């Protein structure tokens, strides 16, 4: 028996879902605390209790006619820690029309306190359920124009791989559910467990670790290798005393050139990127409860706790303590 209660994950099943996104997420969460332990002959400690749930518990047919028998009825799911909506693999209009009875359950479980996450075109289901109004979100770039037209009240950024707004997460598309799942595994279980999953499932751990920065526009599909190099240096050395001059020296360019190319590629200045990386890392640590506020500020590169707290509130609208109280995972 595990020494803790596994987190409950519910994956919504519906006719026209993309089977790979659904079963891929099922496997990643189900084998967290399992595969690594098996390989090292350690006691198996499943970290998640994962179920596929459909309307009334009925079997559903994914795209390409794969039929899945769910574990449960969404009607009977009273609470869960995480509710996931997979990619739509069929006609979006057809799926939205047929899935309308699911929308009250999406809203109900969100209101009960569950984290809610969608992959790719699954964001259309969240938008139809009015869960993305006024929030940041992403979806597959191929659907971005339609999404913006259909849901102008949503702050869509199709350039992002993963977005987070409060406790609603969206992934861009295709295999991005790996990045989404890795972010959520780290959110619930910490970086060590997430790294174990990345190694056992042969997931690109560098890419997965970057995903935790996505909600502040830190993941960009740009083609400037020099700026990518600077980003990686910042992400690996954020706790050091970093400056634009130091980064420019590392990249062998002038500070003016670095600022210009960085803003063109990442849409922020290098100093803003340093701050954003530090804040995102501090959020993960606050969620895990590993540090008190003073220890945390020193750990991420700020000697002045008051300055760190002001910066944190500017980015998140919450003090570090308030953020920890709201998002800390037991």
UniProtKB/TrEMBL annotation:
<dbReference type="InterPro" id="IPR002818">
    <property type="entry name" value="DJ-1/PfpI"/>
</dbReference>
<dbReference type="InterPro" id="IPR018062">
    <property type="entry name" value="HTH_AraC-typ_CS"/>
</dbReference>
<dbReference type="Pfam" id="PF12833">
    <property type="entry name" value="HTH_18"/>
</dbReference>
<keyword id="KW-0805">Transcription regulation</keyword>
<dbReference type="InterPro" id="IPR018060">
    <property type="entry name" value="HTH_AraC"/>
</dbReference>
<dbReference type="InterPro" id="IPR052158">
    <property type="entry name" value="INH-QAR"/>
</dbReference>
<dbReference type="InterPro" id="IPR029062">
    <property type="entry name" value="Class_I_gatase-like"/>
</dbReference>
<keyword id="KW-0804">Transcription</keyword>
<protein>
    <submittedName>
        <fullName>Helix-turn-helix domain-containing protein</fullName>
    </submittedName>
</protein>
<feature type="domain" description="HTH araC/xylS-type">
    <location>
        <begin position="228"/>
        <end position="326"/>
    </location>
</feature>
<dbReference type="Pfam" id="PF01965">
    <property type="entry name" value="DJ-1_PfpI"/>
</dbReference>
<keyword id="KW-0238">DNA-binding</keyword>
<dbReference type="InterPro" id="IPR009057">
    <property type="entry name" value="Homeodomain-like_sf"/>
</dbReference>
